[in-house]
Write a structure and sequence with these properties.
The complex is a heterodimer of chains A (about 120) and B (about 325). Chain A is an all-alpha fold. Chain A is about 75% helix and about 0% strand. Chain A has five helices and no strands. Chain B has two domains: about 100 residues, Phosphorylase Kinase, domain 1 (2-Layer Sandwich), CATH 3.30.200; about 210 residues, Alpha-Beta Complex (Aminoglycoside 3'-phosphotransferase, Chain: A, domain 2). In chain B, strands 1-2-3-5-4 form a five-stranded antiparallel β-sheet. A two-stranded antiparallel ribbon of chain B has the order 6-9. In chain B, strands 7-8 form a two-stranded antiparallel ribbon. In chain B, a hairpin with an 8-residue loop joins strand 4 and strand 5. The interface between A and B is medium-sized, with 34 and 30 residues.
Amino acid sequence: MQDEPTPTELLKAVADFLRNEITPAIKGHNAFKLRVGINALDLVTRQLTLADDGDAAEHARLKQLLGADGSLLELNRALSDRIAKGEVDLQTPGLSEHLWQTTMDKLAVDQPNYGSYKRELGNK
Amino acid sequence: MIEQQLGRCVASWYPGATGVTGAAKLSGGASQETWSFDIVHAGGTSGAILRRAPPGYGASPGRAAGLDAEATLMQLAHDAGLPSPRVMHVLKPEDELGTGFIMQRIEGETIARKILRDEEFAKARPLLARQLGKVVAGIHSLPAAKLPKLREMTATREIADLEREYRSFGWPRPVFELALRWLRERDPGPSKEVTLVHGDFRHGNLIIGADGVRAVLDWELAHFGDPMEDLGWICVNSWRFGEIDKPVGGFGSREDLFAGYEETGRKADPDRVMFWEVMGTLRWGIMCCGMMQRFRSGPDHSMERAMIGRRSSETEIDLLRLLAPRGA
């Protein structure tokens, strides 16, 4: 067992330092790059916090949809294959809901400020 | 050093030019660069832009029209009265600057967030969709006989290209599969009319001023194809920058875009435009994945490239909003 602080606590401390102390001191193209870097740290923090639950729920839905077991990657490959072949489509019960939930969970990590995501959050 | 080379170059064709100042690289990868500089002459200075492949980088990769074709297209657009910089000089071997061209620099803004938020553009915003409709109609009407040689694209070929690229990543994306299937099932076939297509008609490639559109830039992806492609691409949600209820670049409506397009006697086909909007959304998503691949394997190991990989999910939610809207 690794000791505390947790990875998310460490990342958040670094991101806050860069955001609050370093950002005001940086100009020009490096200010843009710094912002991208802080965004990346924030994204990783969200992923560490949210992805386990999202992945578990996605895995359960995929098993149900496909009637098969496997890793998350294997099941996503199988679902992609079936969509490509036309064996499942938006008329298939549960597919649309699964794709929506999976995509919403990805956006919650990747880009929670994205306009379409914010709209759909209030539109469940 | 580039100022000396540019100075020698401009002296050979700009009347009374004595040199250049203020050369600054605006953008550039390994194979293509854009520089801004001022030509110094007896009457003062004139702003200019160099777009070039440096010496040793002649061939244009993949889909690119090539810098010679870009220069020809810009000049044709300028001659037709479209908002386009005048091409001042096409580089020659003796210029020792590589291949490319020098054009007039047009002042204005290309950064979407400023165009959509700053007070300076408040009067221009409501006019832009209609203006751009008219401009893109002008591009589609450029005289075919004068156009350079360009690749010809159809919807069928574009779907196949996107699918090949997506499959090359080896990473399953059920939403992209759904979009590919949707596109294949609705492929309208070859366009009745094939015209010049700009290919990248969107924020970043448009110079906007307080009075509206001042220039169309970056003809790198120009090709022959379905003119509705350009209208669909500018409606892709990725170019709305949060203003998601204004489909044209976050500033205007499809109706205004089409009205401007039809002012000159051309006809917009809303269904086909929607088809190309779905295609464009998927295309941008696949381009984001491609940047992440280049981050992993290529020389450009930058955070920016890596983070763009995490924007492909934005196109997934936009594809779902288009293909499987909730509550519908």
